[in-house]
Amino acid sequence: MDRAQKEKVVEELGQIFESSGVVVVARYEGLTVAEMTDLRNRARGAESTVRVAKNRLAKIAVEGTPAAGIMPLLEGMTVLTYSEDPVAAAKVIEDFAKDNKKIEILGGAMGGTALDRAGVEAVSKMPSRDELIASIVGCIGAPASNIAGAIGAPASNIASILSTIEEKAA
Q: pLDDT tens, position by position, for the chain (170 residues)?
């Protein structure tokens, strides 16, 4: 890798550390290509990304960003999982780690907050942005449907009574 390529990688990683809602660092020693592909596919399905980068370049890129707290974690064979959604990447890597003991979650960063192993696990248990939006929309929509049901109920009751009277008269 020449200097220009390294500078490009550092710039890309810097963007990741600046703009991601969460970045999780894990050690992946012993993972097969098929297992890594499975992790990447799971991440893609959850709108997350998995990236392997040289630790030296990642340390240069993370310096001065909100995620600078992960710098000590960048040792050995590490993989970065990140997403804009502050929960998605943590959920993906936690689920994968349950199925595959070859991956060890070291920690991560959520904005400017450094996360240890327990912190990543706690973040993974939080509802995702889409789940929160669905919950809020459900709460907003529920009163309106209750009002519509209450308004429509007397009319249907009257119609039912009228049809019963009509049947008895006939």
A: 788 888 998 899 888 888 888 899 999 988 999 999 999 999 999 899 999 989 999 999 988 888 888 899 999 899 999 998 888 889 999 999 998 888 999 999 988 888 888 888 988 888 777 777 777 777 776 666 655 555 555 656 666 666 777 777 76
DSSP 119-141: HHHHHHTSPPHHHHHHHHHHHHH
CATH top-level class of 3-126: alpha beta
Domain spans of the chain, in order of start: 3-126, 127-170
Predicted TM-score of the model (pTM): 0.72
